[in-house]
Amino acid sequence: MQPIQVLATYPFLNDAKQYIKEQQLTTKELLTGKLYERARTISIERVDNALKYGDVKDRRLATESDHIMEIYSYPLARMLTTGIDDPYMKRRYALSEAYHAYKHLINETHIYQKKIAEELAIHYKKPTENTINIHFKDYLRYAPTQYKKWKMVNRLMDNGYVTVTYKDLTRLILETLRTKILNELEHLQTNQLINNTFSAEITRFRMILHAKQKKMQTAPIGKLSIEKLPPCLKDILAAIQSGENVPHMGRFCLVSFLNTIGMNTSEILKLFSTAPDYQEERTRYQVEHITGESSSTQYKSPGCQKMRTYGICPTEKMDALCKRINHPLSYYNTKWKKPHQEKQQT
Predict the structure, then answer these.
(1) What is the distance between the alpha carbons of residues 6 and 3, in angstroms, rounded to a whole number?
(2) Which of 202, 142, 181 lies closest to 56 in space, CA to CA?
(3) What's the 3-state SS for 257-314?
(4) How far apart are CA 234 and CA 82, in angstroms?
(5) What is the mean pLDDT of residues 230-252?
């Protein structure tokens, strides 16, 4: 088993789970025992930091007890996140834990980086001093291939294995870990004991998330008034901001629409930045490609017929105005003009 100092840094490791198991601790003891009050406090701090900063952050760990409480705080933070029961919070927390591990792992030895890759079932072979070969299925599953650097055509591949640097490996580990933690959170179930232990915190986090969501839905951003968006684009934006998996065509329709009404890249990025898994470099690349800043084509915003063809028109949410227009831009412009016309008539 690895030292507790290592387990405190990487509490998602199997060794950390084994360490807790060997202490013969029950979930009830962790949630209610006075000895573990410090661990519960740290778990709340982890979730707070995840929501505020996108990183669970480090704490000052001076003693053996500090490291042990840090290890215990990880499963407790997962319980709290499950109790909050919010898709945005789950995605935000998963990304924050993964990013925290990435910050430390980037400075580890290549031997230890390979050890973490093995534990996360990233298949590799032929490691050298500077590079390592990753199975193409793992590479395609976790690499940000929308960037030129990561596209398969720009990589060496031999017998199904893609050559990457160790820095690239840690980036793949980040995404692998994020996906793993999120999948685990999706399958965890809360219970009354968790809800009772973290009752005040669950209520507090839900209030913060509700206020955040309400602000996103109503606050004008740049040249955009979200409340005037047609139902289709309002749904797409809400899904992106809550961290749901939105198909490429949904993102394309939204970005091309925002560009057409005059929003620049910075304003569009600001709108996307509230998503729990927001990564500026990746989003900027996608936005600039659609708006024509980094490509030879400035794409037009699709009309209602194409939106229906793409399967992203929520027909059950169509209002009276939807039924009278044939383009999201017409809907938005009509919503803008209506208050102005009413003002002139009074």
Answers:
(1) 5
(2) 181
(3) HHHHCCCCHHHHHHHHCCCCCCCHHHHHHHHHHHHCCCCCCCCCCCCHHHHHHCCCCC
(4) 27
(5) 80
Which of 247, 136, 244, 116 is CA-nearest to residue 177? 116
Distance of CA 271 to the CA centre of its chain: 15
Name the amino acid, one letter, at 225: S
Strand order of the β-sheet with 124-125 is 124-125, 131-135, 161-165, 157-158
* Three-class DSSP category at 220: coil
Tokens of 26: 């029950």
Question: In sequence order, what DSSP letters do the residues of 145-165 get, joined into one string?
Answer: TTSGGGSGGGS-EETTEEEEE
- CB-based burial of residue 155 (10 Å sphere; 0-12 exposed, 13-18 middle, 19+ buried)? middle
Residues 125/133, Cβ–Cβ less than 8 Å:
yes
In tens, the pLDDT along 270-281 reads: 878 777 667 777
Domain locations in the chain?
4-97, 106-178, 219-345
* Rounded mean pLDDT, 324-328: 91
Closest CA to 191 of 15, 30, 56, 11: 30
Average pLDDT for residues 273-290, to the nearest whole number?
Answer: 79
